[in-house]
Design a protein that fits this description.
Blueprint: H1 2-30, E1 44-52, E2 55-63, E3 70-74, H2 93-96, E4 98-103, H3 121-136, E5 145-150, H4 152-163, E6 168-174, H5 180-198, H6 201-208, H7 217-229, H8 237-240, H9 244-249, H10 255-276, H11 281-284, E7 292-297, H12 305-314, E8 320-325, H13 332-335, H14 337-348
Parallel strand pairs: 3-4, 3-5, 5-6, 6-7, 7-8
Antiparallel strand pairs: 1-2, 2-4
Helix pairs in contact: 3-4, 5-6
Length: about 350
């Protein structure tokens, strides 16, 4: 009888936990998107919808002073929006900039209503320029902003700066993608060499069945899986794991946005990746008219750092500098949170004055 009684109590407790989990999920589903307030009459902490290219898209704006210059962060992917993670690595930046995160057309909270047949690199670059004009005219910075492009975001960022240098104080290429075809070749070669070094027979067998250019996005995903497991994408994995909480529970996204994320990400990748593979910036962009900073992880083989070094050596610009992050791979903002913010404040902020 005591054992039966224990089972009954276990069943009651389990049922209560399931009910609480269901209630929490229900409340999460009903909760509108929001962001933590910032104190002060001049501050801004807001989620906004803005029309770009005829389509409403979502912005997160956070800063202590609306009179500060804008830092516009272009997320990676394509389609890898991460709006709720922005505040995780922006606390110090919010003191000096109006930090603006944008879920691009087809991604995150800007996915709904996307016409996938119209999604192209040129379309997202045009959205970037239109958004830059909007922000430059609204906040401090003398009619210009700082543009930061991460990974895929560095593709549209570099092209936007090439087309409209008058809008930008400076450009930061974070995990800069330089050459689509060579990017995949070098990344694959590094993973293959690492698998051989480790004697990883499972990886070697799977990698032997694929090679760039990949026939499908599943093949690309397989290579990226082994890349990540060997630290060539996220090097400081334990630190980066802290960003999982805001991705899962941060108030800037609704449950609906989170549930639609996988399908939107896949659709964005399908629509844009073929164009990404044609990128050849040393040939396409021999010169830029604004100061350039390449924030580069010493362990980044997602966008291999040797290609960044090659382009930086050839690129003509008022200022070209590689800023190295010794303990990072491809995800510098969440791998070296403090160093990332300090580098922007110490090296890039002075360019806005």
């Amino acid at each position: 009888m005591p054992f039966v009684r224990v089972l009954k109590w276990f069943a009651i407790v389990f049922a209560a936990l399931v009910s609480l989990a269901g209630l929490a999920l229900g409340l999460l589903a009903l909760r509108p998107a929001s962001t933590t307030p910032i104190a002060g009459a001049a501050a801004i902490a807001a989620l906004e919808r803005v029309e770009l290219g005829g389509v409403e898209q979502t912005l997160l704006l956070r800063g202590r002073d609306r009179g500060n210059p804008v830092l516009l962060y272009l997320h990676g992917g394509p389609g890898a929006a991460h709006l709720p993670v922005g505040p995780f690595y922006s606390e110090k930046l919010e003191e000096e900039f109006v930090v603006t995160h944008w879920d691009q057309r087809g991604a995150g909270a800007s996915c709904e209503g996307t016409v996938w047949s119209e999604l192209s690199v040129a379309r997202v670059v045009a959205d970037t320029i239109e958004l830059s004009e909007h922000l430059a005219g609204r906040f401090g910075g003398g009619g210009k902003i700082v543009l930061l492009g991460h990974s895929w975001g560095s593709v549209i960022g570099a092209l936007a700066v090439q087309q409209r240098p008058d809008l930008y104080h400076a450009y930061v290429g974070l995990g800069q993608l330089v050459h689509g075809r060579r990017n995949e070749e070098l990344s694959y070669e590094w993973v293959l060499a690492e698998a051989r070094r480790r004697g990883d027979e499972e990886a070697l067998a799977e990698l032997a069945a694929i090679s760039p250019p990949y026939a499908t996005n599943d093949e690309l995903g397989l290579q990226r899986t082994w890349l990540s497991s060997y630290g060539g994408s996220i090097y400081a994995a334990e630190r980066a794991e802290e960003a999982l909480w805001p991705i899962l529970f941060g108030p800037e996204w609704t449950l609906g946005t989170r549930l639609s994320f996988p399908s939107c990400f896949t659709a964005s990748l399908d629509a844009l990746w073929d164009e990404v593979e044609t990128i050849d910036f040393p040939a396409q962009i021999p010169r830029l008219e604004v100061p350039i900073f390449f924030f580069t992880g010493r362990h980044d083989w997602n966008t291999p750092f040797p290609l960044v070094e090659e382009w930086a050596a050839r690129l003509e610009a008022p200022h070209v500098e590689i800023v190295w992050f010794a303990e990072s791979g491809h995800m510098i903002p969440v791998e070296e949170v403090g160093a990332f913010q300090e580098a922007l404040i110490e090296k890039v902020l002075p360019r806005t004055r």
